[in-house]
């Protein structure tokens, strides 16, 4: 289903990070998200595109391990 809507917890599981990490990223606009009555939601297609962009984007100096 292309219009699948995910919760913060579902995205955290998908990305294998803490739910607080996804929540903070959504608040800062670092990941595509929107609110429904105060709760963050994320479209699966947007998350898939975001993951693709993260894996194909050139690394900037200072990113990653030193």
Automatic annotation (TrEMBL):
SUPFAM superfamilies in UniProt: Putative DNA-binding domain
InterPro entries registered for this protein in UniProt: DNA-bd_dom_put_sf (IPR009061), HTH_17 (IPR041657), SinI_DNA-bd (IPR010093)
Protein name, as recorded: Transcriptional regulator, AlpA family
Organism: Myxococcus fulvus
Pfam families named in the record: HTH_17
GO molecular function list: DNA binding
Highest taxon of source: Bacteria
The Helix-turn-helix domain, residue ranges: 6-54
């Amino acid at each position: 289903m292309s219009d699948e809507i995910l919760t913060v917890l579902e995205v955290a599981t998908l990305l294998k990070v803490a739910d607080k990490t996804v929540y903070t990223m959504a608040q800062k606009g670092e990941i595509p998200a929107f609110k429904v009555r105060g709760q963050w939601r994320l479209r699966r297609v947007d998350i898939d595109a975001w993951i693709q962009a993260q894996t194909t984007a050139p690394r900037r100096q200072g990113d990653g391990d030193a």
